[in-house]
Amino acid sequence: MFKAPPSQLSDLEADELSRFALTLAQAAAGVTLPHFRNGTKIDNKLADGAFDPVTAADRDAETVIRRAVKDAYPDHGIFGEEHGKEEGTSPLTWVIDPIDGTRSFISGVPLWGTLIALNDGTYPRVGLMSQPYLDEIYLGTGSAARLIRHGRESVLRTRPCDGLEHAILGATDPAIFFGAGEHDAFEALSAKARLRRFGGDCYFYCLLAAGQIDLVVEAALNPYDIQALIPVIEGAGGIITTWAGGDPQEGGQIVAAGDKRTHEQALSILAKAAR
Question: Contact 196/172 with Cβ under 8 angstroms?
């Protein structure tokens, strides 16, 4: 089973960078909120009938974040969904998805979020999900996680779940399971769960950290889709790996659980389609 490498950041550095990540989230909210439920123009990144939406809110929010990072930490690298990768002279890299859940965003569903992670060169050490419409920020450092809601802070902890038969399972969309054997593996797993829900995007991972659901299973993720959520899940006491039980930071097939027992049971089913 995967075990995260030791952090390259001191506690003092992690605290400083966490505070800075909060300022980035605030700057991004100033861009995204005016567009939400306001008829923003939608572009399609794909052709041939496929649909991968992007809006000015996605692009401009990432631009604001990147500018703030370069002003404060010019040696840091940046990797974002909309504007690509910019190497730094430091091993530290900010990994950004300005709007995770653009389909939710353009549909008026408040389950999208801004994802911001700080990777120390070996693993994401600081991560947050900001949902500004709900005024919620889920912030983690791997060793602790907290929710900031309406200016008030509370500790995030996953809940115990001793088996799949008691688990609430979340996934963004069944259509993401298009790899060989993935759909069958997901169906076999979800058939054992008490309840499954779709459409949560990044918000499902935060609900897991908050002890509201027990399991999130996804596939075809990019690094910027998941790195910010790793410190939140782990800081709340949860477990997040690939379907093969490996390092989750590059994305792909991901399973997150609040309880080790549920995670182990999920892996035993998903391993059939693990890559």
Answer: no
Residue 259 marked as a ligand binder: no
237-to-123, 136, 189, 260 alpha-carbon distances in Å:
17, 20, 22, 10
* Residue 87 included in any domain: yes
99 in a labelled binding site = yes
Q: How far apart are CA 169 and CA 193, in angstroms?
A: 7
Same domain membership, residue 185 and residue 63: no
- Is residue 105 located within the same domain as residue 196? no
Tell me which residue of 251, 227, 223, 221 sits closest to 85, measured CA to CA.
223
Full residue range of the structural domain in which residue 38 is found = 11-155
Q: Confirm whether residue 58 is marked as ligand binding.
A: no
Same-domain pairing of 126 and 184: no
Q: Does some domain include residue 4?
A: no
| All residues at 6 or more sequence positions from 3 whose CB lies less than 8 Å from its CB, including other chains | none
pLDDT for 157-195, tens place per residue? Answer: 999 999 999 999 999 999 999 999 999 999 999 999 999
* Reported confidence tier of residue 116, pLDDT bands at 50, 70, 90: very high
Q: Of the candidates 58, 230, 32, which has an alpha carbon nearest to the alpha carbon of residue 138?
A: 230
Looking at the fold, whether 151 and 254 belong to one and the same domain comes out as no
CA gap 195, 160 in Å, rounded:
16
- Asked if 209 and 184 touch (Cβ cutoff 8 Å), the reply is no
Find, among 229, 101, 252, the residue nearest to 182 by Cα.
252
Residue 52, annotated as binding a ligand:
no
Ligand-binding site membership of 225 (annotated): yes
Would the pTM count as exceeding 0.90?
yes
CB 170 within 8 A of CB 208: yes
